[in-house]
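User: Can you help me understand a structure? I only have the sequence.
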Amino acid sequence: MFRKFRPKLLVLILSLLVVFVGCGKKNETGDTGAMETDKLVIQNAGSDTMVNLAQAWAEQYAKIAPNVSVEVSGGGSGTGIAALINGTVDLANSSRKIEPEEAQKALQHNGEEPQEFVVGYDALAVYVHKDNPLNEITIEQLADIYGEGGSITKWSQLGIQHSGCSSDEIIRVSRQSNSGTYHYFREALLGTADFRLGSRDLHGSKDVVELIAKTPCAIGYSGMGYAIPEVKMLKVARTQADPYFAPSIETTLNSTYPIARPLYMYSLGTPNEVTKEYLVWIFSDVGQRIVQESGYVPLPEDQRMMPLASPGE
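Assistant: Let's start by predicting it. Here is the structure, written out as tokens:
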């Protein structure tokens, strides 16, 4: 025989259920029962040059918009743009401008053109070991070091005696070919020509600087925000007849440093409201202060605006 529930006990059970359900967090539609861990997610991937900056933005934004999670990953500018074309990210970080054929692929695959946002600037520094006596170099000399058919292979050819490098050999450190930094540096030095073979090609900006710090014979390139005490940044001139400039905020914004570049974010068409709010915040004083604190160059005041309208406007 089954025992019958007592009415008072049944009322107590129902009351507890009402209290439990009532404690559920309301979701965006006003329904109850959503888990507190439910968040709006912005997928953000791409440039290894920008990954530290993107992570710093994401961490700070979580404090002011706890219902939004910005998921950041690197892999290179080409990887981020490919993910944008495939529709798997909301924002692609890139240290180079998107190629026309990439933009066309995005349009063909998704029916929307990529929208470009300049979110800061970066001076691409030329690094050597801290004990290297070299202090300045020209674009012409760099092209002769890195370019296919170049003739400079020894430090003595640059007019120095590098006691820390007994072999006198210049060890070229570079980036992998899917890197926006690789593409920008090659274009700045060589135009449409190619790098010569035999460089040590690394995945990330930080990796380049760390290898140079441990390799007295090395030279390489990376964002100025990755500088550490064990390396030094060279002053750079276009030719030997031109003045030399060190990478800095001032020389980047006045275009005297010859290898500075914009940093980009791309969306597919007009971003959704959640992503748009994040971009607006990146353009704010707080977002741009993080650019400077991360070792990059913040946008001038007159460039800190969203170049788009809200969806449907």
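Now, to help you interpret it: The CA atoms of residues 182 and 249 lie 22 Å apart. The chain has two domains: 40-121+261-303, 123-260. Let me know which part you'd like to focus on.
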